[in-house]
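# step 3/5: fold
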Amino acid sequence: MRKQSASSTAASGNRNRIGRIAILLVAGLVVIGWLFFTNTPPSYTLDGQGFVVLTCPVPTVREEILRTDGNVTLSRIVYSSGDQDVFALLAAPGKPNNAIVLVPGAGVRKEAHAQRAMAYARAGIATLVLDTRGNGGETPGPGSQIQEDYQKFRNGVWPVWYRTGCDIIGARSYLEGKFHTNIYAMGESNGGRVAVFAVASDPHFTGYIGVSTAGFDRYGHTVGGDAGVFIKSMDPDRLIHRISPRPVWILHAPADTFIPIADGIRLYENAGEPREFINFSGTHGINDTVDAWVIRTFGL
């Protein structure tokens, strides 16, 4: 072991069925050792199949209330994630129906999703928007660049991709302890890629929602040596089947010119059941159509 670190034809009844399946699966899910929380320094290993086993720190959280709107509170969250503090925004009602960890796309700061998070919260969905490493916000550090991350991997240093996985998992742990409800990871564009990694590593997530995202088309299988091992360890196309039997939703716009819809369909086809592919009107990223679907599917 290496140490260290397409249109949617489903009716609303299918969405309800997936949601019911998710609740039953989480209630009976057996944790099989993909993820450990610890007060010792975090670490990672690769198992015999080349999948990452994360040891993530228990997050110590500080919450500062920014404003209150009726029964919804918007807070600034700061929590430890092994090597540094990570920042987030949390919009939440008093008793949410579900909760979402929202991972923005590359270069998108958490504040860009503040009003969206408030709208979700008013619909009964507690929403934590992660301030992702390298996005230019409060959370310091570079983003995940594959070449630089590979050099870290070769040198036994934590790749940023793996660190971000623990950031997402720490957010899930905090929401679960605070609200005791179903927790979904929702990722946009590149945020959707690393969110697959986190959910595949952490069986406590209820399910995964990917918007305008895709995998690496199993590129690591064409590369030899440690580089191939590393790329395969983070490729959503290879990892997404490990989310099953928890549900997966992939949302993609046919007019997306940044990540073609064919790439989103491939990610969907690599997922296990239950799964659903949803076309939406727009181009790239979360928009009002996606928001309406989220509120309809996970809200009160």
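# step 4/5: annotate
The mean pLDDT is 88.
# step 5/5: archive (pending)
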